Amino acid sequence: MTRYTEKQKFAAVTAYRKGAGGLRATASAHDVGVDSLRAWIAAYEANGKAGLVAKRRVIYDLNFKLEVLRRMQDKGLSCRQVAALFNIRRLDLVAEWSRLYAAHGAAALQPGWKWEQTRMSKPPSRHDDREAVTNDQRSREELLRDLQQLRAENAYLKKVQALSNQVALGARERTLIVLELRPHFPLADLLRAAELARSSFYYQLKAIRTGDKRCDLKAKIREIFNRHKGRYGYRRVTAELRQQGLVVNHKTVQKLMVEMQLKSLVRPKRYKAYDGAASETAPDRLERDFTADEPNQKWVTDVTEFKVNNQKLYLSPVMDLYNREIVSYEIAERPLPVMIKNMLTKAFNRLDSGQRPILHSDQGWQYRMPAYRQRLHQSGVVQSMSRKGNCYDNAAMESFFGTLKCELFHLNKFDTTETLKAALHDYIRYYNVDRIKIGLGGLSPVAYRTQAAAAPA
């Protein structure tokens, strides 16, 4: 332990009293301990410069100790304050006197009293008839105290049995029981019955009173998840929260969604097509480069099938790889060439003069027909095809079909093809206008295209 001279003590106390800095700043500037400086200040205020004089070991008598404890009780002083007031060498001596007096009375303050022997002495055996104390010899207060403890334990056990059949409750559940019974029984009895430490009780009490700090954030996450009908995972939920002005980490959103059991839909396994012989086809001009620098530069298309009550419905869309927007689509109950023809007509109507996109598809029979190839040639559109049986060459379109069926078809029950057709119209509008994409900076395809068009060149 560092020993400080009276000069050091006086200099530190004087600097603090002049307002040169706070307690910690002054202690750091004079290279002394914060607790030591606090004790010197209290001693100086009580006894002046004499309170800073190094104190020698002193044996205090009973009357002095009783006077110290009486003054501390009457004035409501702390151990540090009363030690400074009576110029006592160690403030922990006051705390020890207080403990001894509360446990054993004034006799324990006599010099030479063997407190350690008394504290460590073995209690009398319950089976020793010569030393046992009968209930008749016990005071009325002791008997009432034991009765009160038994009543508290009985009330606690009844609450535990009513709350749960499990063997052991957690600290939070036991704290809630203690809080419920606290108006009727002393806290010490309830903590003893609950086998709960006082520090644990107050820790749990603070946590209960604080409440859920993320209640508002959870409500916003649930609202976004429900509004999009469970189609959003934690990444899209995070992106939408940030659009609302909330600064939140995606890991926090993921953790809260797990706690609330909000899980986005899982995509089905990919289908592996038959790798057979190929007929007359067009070359693969995309080569799995599904990015575009401007609108109407690269398109992809395909046909997917839905089954509703032994009836089939077919969807044929065209997607722009610039922003993953569905630029046109056609829905039919039979996959006839007229479905592809109508889809192309709607798509070509969106082209400006001079725009000649690449239209990529698989090697389906619809795209190998002479009428289809001729239509593309007349419009100046370059045809591109995937390799036979390789769905990865048209991964962008396959990904859209997977998202569509996962978020719409597999999530809902459709009784007729008409209800499914109406739902497909609504979903494609939702996909283009409302549904945000992480790859587009948290914007929907239409919003991304509009923003890019409005940006200065």
Automatic annotation (TrEMBL):
Pfam families: HTH_21, HTH_28, rve, rve_2. Residues 117-138 are annotated as: Disordered. Signal peptide: none annotated. Gene3D superfamilies: Ribonuclease H-like superfamily/Ribonuclease H, Winged helix-like DNA-binding domain superfamily/Winged helix DNA-binding domain. Residues 291-453 form the Integrase catalytic domain. Residues 125-138 have a biased composition (Basic and acidic residues). Transmembrane segments: none annotated. Coiled coil: none annotated. This is IS3 family transposase.
